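Inputs:
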Amino acid sequence: MGDIGLLVDGFATALQPLYLLYALLGVTLGTAVGVLPGIGPAMTVALLLPLTYSLEPAAAFIMFAGIYYGGMYGGSTTSILLNTPGEAASIVTALEGNAMARAGRGAAALATAAIGSFVAGTIATVALTFVAPVVADLAVQLGPQDFVALTVLAFLTVAAMFGASPARGIAALAVGLLLAMVGTDSLTGQQRFTFGLPALADGIDVVVVAVGIFAVGEALYVASRMRKGPLPLVPVGGSWMTREDFRRSWKPWLRGAAVGFPIGTIPAGGADVSTFLSYSMERKLSKRKEEFGKGAIEGVAGPESANNAAAAGVLVPLLTLGLPTSATAAIIIVAFQSYGIQPGPLLFEQEAPLVWTLIASLYIGNLLLLVLNLPLVGVWVKLLQIPRPYLYAGILTFAALGSYAVGASTADMILLFLVGVLGWGMRQFGFPVAPAVVGLILGPIAEEQLRRTLAISQGDPSALVTSPFAAVVYILLLVFLAAGVYLKRRQSRVEEELVHDRPETVPAEGNRS
Amino acid sequence: MSTASGSGAAPERVAAPERGGRTRTWSWGEAAIAVGLFAVGVFTLVETTSITVPGSANVLGPRAFPYAVGVLLVGASVALAVSLLRGQHGSAEEGEDVDAGARTDWGTVAKLVASFAALVLLIEPLGWPIAATLLFAGTAWALGARIVRAAVIGAVLNVGIHVLFVQVLGLFLPAGPLEGVPFFG
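Outputs:
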C-alpha cells in the first residue's frame, strides 16, 4: 500500500495553490487550443511545450497533465458544433453529436460529452494508479533484448495501425528513423548523415521536428487547399440533459471507460479504435437502433468516454516502459526528455515524487475540466469562430517561436520549415505522420538497446529472442497485428454502415451557409 | 444523394482507409513519392558506407542500424510502387478547414514561404516583435485577411509574446532595435 501513500504525497504537492494555478492554466490552455479547428491533441501539446521551458519539472508536468486532458477534451466540442471531421478520435462524436446539435439538442450533447469524459477519465486514472506501478515493477527486471522487442512491437503496430496501408506506415516510420540518426553516434562518437554541417552535428532537435510535422505541416497543407466560404457552425441549443438523458447516458459512460482504458494501454491505434468499438457496441446494445445516425445520446456518451479513458490508458506504457503508442504520447516523451528525464522502468523509482504528482494532477485536471467546461461552452464557441487566416497565422507564429526558443538559432527555424514541407507532403499524399514521430523518438532507444544486446552476447543474434519476455513479446506482436487488422476492418465497416444509413445528412449540411 | 465528392467530408474519409479510393486515376505525384523514397533509401545505404567505424567499435558498429533503415526505405518504396500499380492510391488527409478535393494553391503557399523566409532573415537584425509581426501579417494576408488589420493584430500578439517570454518566463528572444527599451530586453 506504499503506492497509496505516494499518491497522497502527490496530491499534497499538486494541491498547493501555485500548482493548482498551473493545473488550471494547463487545462484552460489545453482546451482552448484543442477546441480550435484543425488542431488535434498532438499539435496542442507540441505548440504549448515552449510555455513550460522555464518552469521547474513539477510545475511543468502539472501543467502538462492539464494540457493533455484539456486537448483531448477540446476536440469533442469542435466536432459537435462544427460540421466537419476533426481529429480522428472525435469522428464518431462528430457524426452523432453533430446530428444532436442540428436537432436542437446541442447543449445535451455537450453535457453528456463533458460528464462522460469526467466519469471515464476518473475511472481510467484510478486504473492507471493501480496498474502502472505493477507494470513498472515488472519492467525493472527487463534486459536490453527485452527493450529491443518492445520497440519493435511499438514500431510495427504503430506503422500498421495508422494510415491507409502498412507500406505507407513503414515508409513514414523509416523516414522518422532516418531523421533520428542524423548527428553524432552516441556509442562511437562518429558523425552520421551530417554532411559536414556543424548545425547537424548535435542531431536534429525532436521538438523542432515534432512542431514542424504537426504545426507547420498542417498550416502549409491547409493553406494549399483552404475550404472556402463560411464555417458550418451549429448553434448550441436546447435544454440541458434531462432525467431521461441521464438514464440513457450512465451505462455508455461506464462501458466507454471499460473499452477505452485497455485499448489505450496496448499499441493498437489508441483513442481512435476505442471510440469506434464503443460506438458499435452502444448501437448493438441500444433498444433504439433507429435513432443512431440521427442523434442518439448513447452514441455521444460512449465514444467520448472511451476517448478519454484511452488517453489515460496510453500513459501506462508511456510512463512504465517509455513506449509511446500515439503521436501525442510521443510528444509527451519529448517533454520529459527536455527535463533530462527518460520515461521507462526506472521512472517510478528515481522520480517517484514527480510521477505521483503527475498522476495526482491528472485527477485534479479531470475535475477542473468538468467544472470549467460546463459553464464555459459559450467561450469555446467564440473560439471556433476565429477567422481562419488569423488562426493559421497564429499557428505558424507559435511554431516559429517554439523552434527558436529551443536554442535561439535560425538554423532550427529553417529546419522547422523543411520538416513542415515534409509534413505537408505526407498529408497531401496520404502518409500517416504518427509513425514518423514515433520512429524519431524511439529510434535512438531501439538502436542503443540492440547494440547493447549484441555486445553482451558477443555478436550472437539469438540473444534477441531467447529471453522469455522477448519471446512472449514477439508472439504478442503477431496476436496484436492480427487483432489490429480485425479491429481496423471493423472500424471501416462501422464507418461504411454509418454512411449507408444516413448518406443525406453530412453532405447536405456542407452547403448550408 | 450527393455523396459524390467535395461537399461531404465524412463519406470520403470512409472510402479512404482500405479500398484506398480506386476511383482516382494514375497520379504522377504519388509515383514521384515512391521513386523519391527509393532514392532516399539508396542514398542512405550509400552514405552509410562513408561512416567511419573506429577500431574499438563493438560487435554492432555505427553502420548496422543505418543499413537496416536504408533497407526498410527501399522495401517500403517497392511495396508502395506495387500498390500504386495495382490502383491503390492514398487519399489526402481530411480536416476541418481543408477542401481535400481542391487543387494545390501554389500562390498562397509561395506567400507563406516568403513570410517565413522574412522571419528567418530578419529575426536577428529586427528582433522578434517586428519580424514575427511580418510573418503573422504576411501569412494572414496570404490566407485572405486584410493586411492592415492583420498587421495590427500581429503586432499586438507578438509584443505580448515577447514581453511574456522575456519578462515573465525568462527565455531569450532578440529585441532588435527595441533593445534597451523597457519591457523589451
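Remarks. Chain A has one domain: 2-510. Chain A touches chain B through 93 residues (CB under 8 Å).
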